[in-house]
Amino acid sequence: MSIISLIIKREFISKVRNKSFIVMTFLSPLLFVGIAAFIGYLSSMKAETKRIAIHDETGLFAAQFIKQNAEKVEFKYLDLSKIPVQSLKDSIAKESLDGLLVIPKTNKIKDLEGKIEFISNNSPSISFIENTQNIIANEITKINFQEANLDTVAIKNAQANVNIHLAKASGEESLKGLNEIKIAIGGSFGYLIMMFIVIYGNMVMRSVIEEKTNRIIEIIISSVKPFQLMMGKIIGTSLAGLLQFLIWAVIGFALMFAASAFFGVNVGPTAKIPPELMHTAQQEFVGTAQMYINELWNLPIASILIGFVIYFIGGYFLYSSFYAAIGAAVDNQTDSQQFLLPIIMPLVLSVYIGFFTVVNDPHGTIAVVFSMIPLTSPIVMLMRLPFGVPWWQIVISVTLLFASFFAVVWFAAKIYRVGILMYGKKPTWKELYKWLKY
Amino acid sequence: MSNLLEVHKVVKQYGDYVALNEVSLNVPKGSIYGLLGPNGAGKTSLIRIINQITLPDSGEVILDGEKLQPKHVQHIGYLPEERGLYNSMKVGEQCLYLAQMKGLSKGEAKKQLEYWFERLEIQGWWNKKVQELSKGMAQKIQFVVCVLHKPKLLIFDEPFSGFDPVNANVIKDEILALKEQGSTIIFSTHRMESVEELCDHIALIHKSNKLIEGKLVDVKRQFKTNSFEVGILTNNIEGLMYDISQKFTVLPAHFKSLSDELKLEIQIGNATPNELLNILTQRGQVTHFVEKIPSVNDIFIQTVTK
Hints:
Mean pLDDT of chain B: 87
Subcellular location (chain A): Cell membrane
Oligomer: heterodimer
Distance between the termini of chain A: 32 Å
Largest interface: A-B, 23 and 28 residues
Membrane topology (chain A): Multi-pass membrane protein
CATH topology of the largest domain in chain B: Rossmann fold
Radius of gyration of chain A: 30 Å
Strand order of the largest sheet of chain A: 2-1-3-4
Low-confidence stretches of chain B: none
Number of domains of chain A: 2
GO molecular function, one term (chain A): ABC-type transporter activity
Pfam families (chain A): ABC2_membrane_3 (PF12698)
Strand content of chain B: 25-35%
Distance between the termini of chain B: 32 Å
Number of strands of chain A: 4
Low-confidence stretches of chain A: 267-282
Keywords (chain A): Cell membrane, Membrane, Transmembrane, Transmembrane helix
CATH class of the largest domain in chain B: Alpha Beta
């Protein structure tokens, strides 16, 4: 067995045998499902009903708000137009009312537009304000129509309600919900890559520091080249990461199959949703669930998974070479912080770019550029992948990633070679630069 | 006797600091070669170059007639001064791993390990983790790892530190046995009595330069002052002193003895010991007559403080 595979084996086994690896691998999917369920539960929980008083001097709007009580539970609208505004304000101060909407009397209904007030102790949510504005605006529009002698029924009938069907050039029909799924999938894979890089990069660093503080390093590098040791360490640790990902993928697929079987969807990319399903109201829930699961199967799962593996390997190798060099340069983990910051920053940056830019415009300039830059491409490109990326962009991005990986490994190996034998003092950036020339 | 290891004019610089300045060494086959020098003299730098941990800036190292190459790591066993093992790994697995790194097959490594574990009576440690062992126990493991692959050249850096006298003796016997089996041993230490006891060749490095090298007896011969320690019982001290100081330089001497005699250190220069003895026997009863051989300790201190 060649020496490097010996090192890979040792690193892999020591990582996989570690209790925290086993716990992480099998517990974190549970934790993930648990957190998702918890968030779902929290958001489905009935919010406390807020009592909103309507002081409507015009007498035109209060009825519209009261109508809402039947539909919405968050707010209870009360028509208190007869009570003076001042005493209503007092009860807000005493917190027996949560909000007060004051609609004053004006000569012309048009003058109302800027004169409506909402008073409360806590600032109201944006959706509440929009809803309130809509109700009043609709009412005013209706009155305006009537004053202009327009037939409101005819207008309502004349209004078109457009529902665009999204489809790909290949003729495959897609769904409006699909974009959300793509964002979710791309986002979670991008995030996963960042997590993997940070967790496994840190493992590499810890294991380098361990060898250094243990002083076993001198024995080992009297048998192998530092470069072999570093690569063996990086590869062995990455295999542990891939194994973990594989286990998660298997669990994920199992869950998807289980969900598919539960909702009775024909598994496979050929499965099409009958269009009427989208419109049948009575089957709405089952229909939606089927739609989503179906769309999951229709996503380029294979290319996303392959992309994940390629970008994980590339990104992880790139970053863990940095981690290895840092581990070699310092004596203990607390000293590593100053060197870690420049590594964490591009990772955080790419997650932000992913969640803000890619989501808005997956093929915009910023998204494309950052999916090419090696330090950010693993995360940004992965988030773009579900939206379909031209193959030439992937080729450039992967080529750049692996080219810079080799450059960084070369550079890291130099620091590593010198650093592992240096004890006692915390090096400065300047010294690290000097080590490159030793 | 040919040399197993030859170091030719090796230079190593770290930035502006010169760690080794054209150092050359010849380590004869089958010898125990003491590599001496004060702290920071450059010993570790030299050992690291021999182990191919670092490369020399210039100069070359020849092992057994061949220029030092990566494959030679299999023929070298190294016990560094700063000991270390993977704390959370089991002893047996760890030894197997380190032995395989030195090129042994798994089966061969296992066989050798069983032999050594039995020899050092540590069979019960196979499944223990290193963190459960005491320092001395871990040292033993480290010694085994160092010699397991039957290297031609063994490099021991302070091999006895951390051992109790019993275990230090066990290790000393093992080192001598390895020499008997034909291994060449480079032995770096600050404990001069063990140099005295074990080494047949020594080299002294001081401030990045090699100052002394050669067979221990030759080096001692080179450093001897032609002095003799003399103990004599006499009634006429003044007469004796007068006679001796006519021809030789006399210094007071301190050595342990049972009788209450006159103790002297006499430098005879180019004269023969017999001339001195003649004078002494005429004047009294000689109880002690020993040539003063410089100890390694004396040589070390004398060279380094010069």
